Amino acid sequence: MARTSSHATGLRVQLPPLCFLFQAAIIILFSFFVRYNHETDSSLWHRSNHSDMDNDFYFRYPTFSLQWSTLVQGFFHSFHGGKIYIGVESMINADFCTGAVLISFGAVLGKTSPVQLLLMSLLEVTLFGVNEFILLNLLGVKDAGGSMTIHTFGAYFGLVLSRVLYRSHLDKSKHREGSVYHSDLFAMIGTIFLWIFWPSFNSAPTNTGDGQHRTALNTYYSLGASTLSTFALSALLSREGKLDMVHIQNAALAGGVVVGTSGEMMITPFGALMAGFLAGIISTLGYKFLMPILESKFKVQDTCGVHNLHGMPGVLGALLGALVAGLATHQTYGDGLKSVFPLIAEGHRNATSQAVYQLFGLFVTLVLASLGGGIGGLLLRLPCLNSPPDSQCYEDQIYWEVPLEHEDEVQEHLRSEDTETQA
Amino acid sequence: MARTSSHATGLRVQLPPLCFLFQAAIIILFSFFVRYNHETDSSLWHRSNHSDMDNDFYFRYPTFSLQWSTLVQGFFHSFHGGKIYIGVESMINADFCTGAVLISFGAVLGKTSPVQLLLMSLLEVTLFGVNEFILLNLLGVKDAGGSMTIHTFGAYFGLVLSRVLYRSHLDKSKHREGSVYHSDLFAMIGTIFLWIFWPSFNSAPTNTGDGQHRTALNTYYSLGASTLSTFALSALLSREGKLDMVHIQNAALAGGVVVGTSGEMMITPFGALMAGFLAGIISTLGYKFLMPILESKFKVQDTCGVHNLHGMPGVLGALLGALVAGLATHQTYGDGLKSVFPLIAEGHRNATSQAVYQLFGLFVTLVLASLGGGIGGLLLRLPCLNSPPDSQCYEDQIYWEVPLEHEDEVQEHLRSEDTETQA
Amino acid sequence: MARTSSHATGLRVQLPPLCFLFQAAIIILFSFFVRYNHETDSSLWHRSNHSDMDNDFYFRYPTFSLQWSTLVQGFFHSFHGGKIYIGVESMINADFCTGAVLISFGAVLGKTSPVQLLLMSLLEVTLFGVNEFILLNLLGVKDAGGSMTIHTFGAYFGLVLSRVLYRSHLDKSKHREGSVYHSDLFAMIGTIFLWIFWPSFNSAPTNTGDGQHRTALNTYYSLGASTLSTFALSALLSREGKLDMVHIQNAALAGGVVVGTSGEMMITPFGALMAGFLAGIISTLGYKFLMPILESKFKVQDTCGVHNLHGMPGVLGALLGALVAGLATHQTYGDGLKSVFPLIAEGHRNATSQAVYQLFGLFVTLVLASLGGGIGGLLLRLPCLNSPPDSQCYEDQIYWEVPLEHEDEVQEHLRSEDTETQA
Prior knowledge:
The structure is a homotrimer.
Chain A: H1 11-33, E1 34-36, H2 42-45, H3 65-77, E2 79-80, E3 83-86, H4 88-108, H5 114-138, H6 147-164, H7 174-177, H8 181-203, H9 210-237, E4 243-244, H10 245-251, H11 254-258, H12 268-296, H13 306-326, H14 330-333, H15 337-340, H16 342-345, H17 351-380, E5 400-401, H18 407-422
Parallel strand pairs in A: 1-3
Antiparallel strand pairs in A: 2-3
């Protein structure tokens, strides 16, 4: 591990001003436009009725994007009288948007600088808001767990962007991309954490009552089935029948992605198991066979394999959602139809046209994500942004003060410092 | 660390077909028998009254056993009209069952193959369902946090099974069984996680209201007391007065196990402290003195020491539950008697006979666990199951693709690969 | 890493008796004084009305202090008729107290023995209870998230104590104080965990409804802003523009501390962003510039930098709380005034005098914390307590059985043991 980096990252000149600028802009915008909504404001609460929202879980990521997305989403969803009214639901929505941004990060991680990632967030959050508004409000598409709005959008935005940023000499950094024993264990903690919270994640925006129960249950069984099929396929595809940590860490979660759209619908426990099973298979096959082809033939360098965990399972989830929506009947859903498919319940649509709208939503998502990723990629290729050179990719210490690996090294380092001082 | 394994694990030939077979069987059984229950079904919800279940926490483990246990438990508990109706409660019950399976895994880990563990789950989940049905439904035993049904059952099932699989030459793998510095820190994260969620775990199946409050509170104080007594005893038992990570990681949790049965009863805060204090003592003594004897004299090789964390504290918890049940009076419980001890409240039993039933429940659990573990052990000794050889136990890389330990090694490995290619 | 320690720690002689003594004392006190309250007692629940407390999250730490604090706080808050009545709220309060103790630990960690820490808890928990009682009950100060009672109190108690324990030759252990690569990743898991739960932490003791929503929201935006300003400043302050893990791990959380008092008030989303932004700046500057000065000029050796994360942001939070309280009007709060500022709503005070009381609360906290830390430091300097020698600080293995670092070492160790046996 080289201890010095000769590459001028420009981080000191660019990152702080950008952060401060963005933060100042957001603070100013907040001061003019953002107010507590009726469930959060002390004086409004006591004058109105409340949905008794059960906010037992907030998933949040420490980035700029959640502040920005509050503004963007707020503009589309809760803008009236010149103000944006925010509450706990705004927070959850902002988190979901940040989820999409993190998925896109997965495709370009290690090859981009913090400044590039910050600019990328700015663009993606904006487009995420546009796409979500078109799907949920204009098209009346259902997508509670975000198979389309979060996973498909995030994955293809990142993949197209990664394509535009293609580096033909990335093999110079190849030795750093792999994992080591301990980093694999760390990643496993993340997997278990995601596994545990995925049912809450998918069910958070659905209706309290049967909706949340059903979504949690479906997600749970789908995750179980995808885990099992991943273990089976991982052993089957290895020459010696060994399990691959990368498959287990990722494909085991594909079951959560694939029921993102249909989780709140009546897909039946059987349907959830089938969906998860398929998602695990597709995702593992993607890691094993499709990912190398994507890089060699299509010049898409997908650092974390987001195409396998979010791209394909997301599209599959969207298609599944369309199928299940097309099969909806008054009999199956009973009085619940008006919360799951309000437009069908009110007679504005029949099940088939809902299915067509769902498919159209997927199409819009793919188009917007690709366009956005393309524009983003061109933007990030601006030379002034100082992306890391080919030989420095996947290297923590370009952007981070990295401590020494072992205590022995630390002692040696201190000893040599002492010698220098004495000389 | 040897990089190649000459042992043919048979994993590639056996694991995938078994996984696929089990998954297919379950999917088919689900399609015929499993339906959403009235709290999860869209059309049923709007026609019925609901218990307002507060499902703030789902603990779940990524295995086959939770699907299978849904079927087994569903068969016993919610089978009517030829269908099994499932909801969030089924999920929690399936998780608890999976907990017992994981406890048993703890006794045989490192000495068994994934295929063996899969078969073991199949058997144990079935017997867990039988045991739970006998205790809770036939005998009217109270065991919310599962001192008997989860901890005692899981521990003795695993221990008897480990006895049947006894390997006299396991010392060949002795150098791999120990922990290293970083793995100890990892394990500590798990301990903290379990500590934090144990009160929720014990109180999840109890009645909303005073029941859940009381169970959480008792578990919390019991955990506190067991942690303190573990620290004290660990320092006392060490020659130099040093604390032992294995004691802290495990015995500190014994307080959660020991109030599994009595947590929802009126054991008083004082009683909870006493119980936890005792459990910490017994568990630490178990690690220090009993575990080596178990191996040398009784030929039980207990990899993770489940006898100390789950076996003994589980039995102690069952006895404590019987004691507290025997002391129940109408005066102490007031109107709450009908939720804690419905059979006493309705006059079908007095407190003493409830205590006797509790003891009988412990006896049934021990018998079923031992029988099941014995049968399971004989099954797992079938030669076609390819258990790992004595010299390869506790070795990740028989069954996993293990990355290299350090970046230096990775670079060296790549360099040698380059040389090979050039040659 | 030396494998043997010649320093006699006295741990074996002192820790166990102290633990047992304290535990016995607490058990006896519990048996005489502690009872379930009306929300936890089976017979009382069914005779009374209940606040429907939403206890979705219990943060708890495995120490003696939570049992002791139950007694101390119970004495002040729920002592009537000679008994202390406890419930879930007592648990949360005990946890908060334990939080303050852990903050103080951060200032002296690595330089004190477990026995010293135990005695320190005993004193600090008692004084925490006194301070909290004065502030909340006597002065009518608002401090839901504990900017004053938890963060300011914990930080200055620990810092003054650390000053009294000043060691002029601590540089002998300097090489062990730094972090290594893997320990930094571990610490990052803790940071993410705290980030995620901080909104729940601040909002847990506030009023259900708009109060909890508002506190969670404010905490969330404040955390977001402090994270952003920390990233910006960390890059700006580094010579090469690199980010410093220590800043990210700590200063990113300052936003949670700074809205501890004002989080439940109507500070507006804009105000929360500003507060978090400032807290991140101050905290990062503290790590970079103030911390070395504190050690060299003021002889305060602050192991974890609690002054930067808890001390300064805590004081800033208290001042902010006073400011926002001073601006409170009936118009802004509406009917909610009686839950946020009951004394103003009932006409006993106006907003300005509430602000003065808030400031006085901060003053009392600082005085009590400093006095307590001073007395505690003198107590801990008693020679019989065997604090570790200067050359053995920050060393795990004085008090812990530390396993070997790598498997290779383990094998070598076993081999040399074999040789010894043969010889």
